[in-house]
Design goal:
2 copies of one chain form a homodimer. With 136 residues, chain A is mainly α. In chain A, 49% of the residues lie in helices and 6% in strands. The structure holds a DNA duplex (30 and 30 nucleotides).
Chain lengths: 136, 136
DNA sequence: CTTTAACATACCTTGTTGGTAGGTTAATAA
DNA sequence: TTATTAACCTACCAACAAGGTATGTTAAAG
């Protein structure tokens, strides 16, 4: 019942980029120092954000990453689903999962389904901008 | 972001016991067969429920487990916290955790805190009786 | 005194998490 | 053109948790 460091670190990096918006490309080295995270670990998390167009990265001197949208256009749920893979509380609710044998007789499935919905709804109502401005 | 089998199996065993309420002590062998779970694995989960007075177990022939209260008096949140250990989404919210260094400057902590509260509230409003009678 | 079933302990396999190491590619600046 | 910087890629690894199995011991009934 935990959110792993992948999702949490991704959020913190994106928040850091949001706070340095307008300063061009930000090297991960400086983010790692400010956030006290391992540079190498950040480097393993960023490609998925880049491939999904959440950030734009450029190589070489003067390079780094920058946000590709406004902070208010980043949904926390989207970021977590990308980095965590999924927010399903039980495996039978994961996208693409084969239906459970006991689906018909399972007394707990409706609860997990409603819970899953609630979790997604919660994180889908929060944006990076909300977090930055303590709106939560 | 998953509820492990420990918590889910515990719920299913308790629901099975609830369905056989009034039939005395129910051997785990029969529960394992009905629920298609490993008997040995169930046997490793039950002692924690027994020690916390959720069930009463008696040894030997004619023994087994039975509920110690009415199904409507079992809170799902209580069962999950017992078997999962904790429902905290991030380690800094676990009970007994040392306060995080970055607590003051952490932009995401308020979100995790509110989320944690929401999760507990959700499961604390559901009882075994609700699950049995599809009230959810 | 045998059977049954809870309870205890030890072990094991598999997968995930949270990294590190080392190198390659691309861009800029000197 | 070459050195530097920084993204990006691949492989590896240690620690831990999940999800069991195996092998008992203890307690109660018959």
């Amino acid at each position: 019942m935990m959110i792993s460091t992948r999702g949490r670190y991704a959020l913190r990096v994106l928040l850091d980029l949001a706070e340095h918006k307008g300063e061009g490309y930000i090297p991960m080295k400086s983010v790692a120092e400010r956030q006290e995270l391992s540079l190498k670990y950040i480097e393993r998390i960023m490609p998925v954000l880049s491939k999904n167009k959440l950030v734009e990265g450029v190589h070489g001197k003067g390079g780094g990453y920058r946000l590709s949208r406004e902070p208010s256009e980043y949904i926390v749920g989207e970021i977590l689903r990308l980095t965590e893979g999924n927010l399903a509380p039980v495996s039978c609710l994961e996208c693409g999962a084969k239906p459970c044998e006991r689906k018909g007789q399972c007394l707990t499935l409706p609860m997990w389904t409603e819970f899953h919905q609630m979790v997604n709804d919660y994180f889908d109502k929060i944006t990076l901008d909300d977090l930055m401005n303590n709106k939560i």
